[in-house]
Specification:
The chain is mainly beta. Helix content is about 5%, strand content about 30%. Strand 22 (about 420-425), helix 2 and strand 23 (about 450-454) form a beta-alpha-beta unit. The protein is elongated, with a radius of gyration of 31 Å. The two termini are about 60 Å apart.
Length: about 450
């Protein structure tokens, strides 16, 4: 059963007769001498009190939510299935938590929400098959997260001109919109997610000054990024192909860059000299000449490097990087023949090398002294020796060697501590050699124990 608690109810009508100034036939519910039609108007000498509703408002309770109230502040609203028309919420001004309008097969507009100003949680408009416009949201100025997804008839964001802030994020996904007109007042956003849209530019974002991140996936941008001229800061940029040009990119650094999909060229217009995180994933269609090398980064420290299924041949762009704090992951890079570029790397968080079809060795890791997290070497078909790890003194987490043809493990005799479990499975050296290595490190210095299986 829904729990509806009225914190402030309408002021009960006093026991008296209507003022004689009220015309014949007119109703004066609050008995202040002004008819009902003006009971919530500024000229009413004694306005009705606002209504505050805690708990979840849904189902039949929606029909009477505004009865006798001048304005409504609700905690949480679920509008779905065959709920009543949104006009029943014509007095709604604020939602303290989430407001979900989901799978309403009859909902063509948001008429009834003209007074809604603020949603402090998630405002979700999803899978409403005949929703055609957002014009009723003309008063909305701030949300925590706004989700517009799977509304196939919504071809414009007109109606959101008053929205200035989406603190956590704005997600626009799977809509047949060609531009972002309607977001003209948006100045600040957490993560701006634009996925699977029919955009050819970012027109509509001219006022945007701050974004923590931008996720551009499944869109085609022929018009470049000139619309972001006001953007002053951007933490992360993620895109998966379809961007024809980065022309017009504002003069700002990007801390984290994630590339994927059908991207064929490095976005050279984006300043990345202070890049802290680089993620490259799923670039199957790239040629070596098109994306065979990365620009050189000037940072000596990065947070994370993740390269998955690229066609890179080496890592020369990372030359000079001495620390990768969170982790380095190389997985499925078929053309990677060398780790050249990692010669100065001394410390890394987690290190995962899972590149079964690559042919590189570990010689370029000659400066590596510490892996603060887990170290995983798995399925490196051509790796015969661990030469290159000779300077490694400590693995802070688990050390895992799996499905390797390695027979020479002398390079690990410099290890002094393994903070987790040391596991060896399907390798080319014997259990006796494993035991000799454990003895050299010292069993007490392998804090999670060790295991061997062929």
């Amino acid at each position: 059963m829904l729990s509806l608690i009225w914190a402030l109810a309408c002021r009960p009508a006093p026991v008296s007769t209507p003022d004689s100034t009220v015309g014949v036939g007119a109703l004066d519910s609050d008995l202040d001498g002004v008819p009902d039609v003006e009971d919530c108007a500024p000229q009413d000498p004694e306005l009705w009190e606002d209504r505050v509703l805690s708990g979840t408002l849904s189902g039949s309770a929606l029909a009477s939510a505004c009865a006798g109230a001048c304005s409504l502040r609700a905690e949480h609203i679920e509008f779905s299935g065959t709920d009543h028309d949104l006009e029943a919420l014509s007095c709604l001004t604020r939602v303290d938590r989430d407001f979900h309008i989901v799978k309403l097969g009859y909902l063509g507009s948001l008429r009834g929400l003209e007074r809604l100003e603020q949603v402090d949680g998630i405002f979700e408009l999803r899978d409403n098959p005949v929703l055609m416009n957002l014009r009723a949201l003309e008063s909305l100025h701030s949300v925590r997260t706004l989700i517009l997804e799977g509304n196939p008839e919504l071809r414009s964001l007109e109606g959101l001109e008053g929205l200035s802030s989406a603190e956590t994020g704005l997600i626009v996904r799977g809509l047949p919109i060609v531009d972002l007109s309607g977001l003209d007042g948006l100045r600040s956003v957490g993560t701006l997610t634009l996925n699977n849209l029919e955009l050819d530019s970012l027109h509509g974002l001219e006022a945007l000054e701050r974004a923590d991140a931008m996720d551009l996936d499944g869109i085609t941008l022929y018009g470049g990024f000139g619309a972001l001229a006001s953007l002053e800061s951007l933490g992360a940029l993620e895109f998966a192909g379809g961007i024809a040009t980065f022309e017009g990119w504002p003069d700002i650094e990007v801390d984290t860059l994630r590339l994927g999909g059908t991207t064929s060229t490095w976005p050279s217009e984006i300043p990345t000299t202070d890049l802290s995180e680089l993620h490259v994933r799923g670039l199957r269609s790239l040629s070596v000449s098109g994306f065979g090398s990365l620009p050189t980064f000037e940072s000596q420290e990065m947070d994370w490097v993740f390269l998955y299924d690229t066609q890179l041949t080496d890592l020369s762009a990372l030359a000079g990087v001495q620390m990768i704090q969170v982790g380095l992951t190389l997985e499925g890079n078929r053309t990677l023949s060398s780790l050249r570029g990692l010669e100065d790397l001394a410390t890394v968080g987690e290190l995962r090398l899972v590149d079964s079809s690559s042919s590189y060795d570990l010689a370029s890791l000659r400066s590596l002294e510490q892996v603060t997290g887990d170290l995983t070497l798995e399925g490196l078909d051509d790796l015969r020796s661990l030469y290159g790890l000779d300077q490694l003194r400590e693995v802070g987490g688990d050390l895992r060697l799996s499905n390797l043809v390695v027979s020479d493990i002398d390079a690990l005799y410099g290890l002094e501590r393994i903070g987790g479990h040391f596991s060896v499975e399907g390798v080319g050296f014997s259990e006796a050699e494993m035991q000799a290595l454990v003895h050299s490190i010292g069993e007490d210095n392998i804090e999670g124990g060790w295991s061997y299986s062929f």
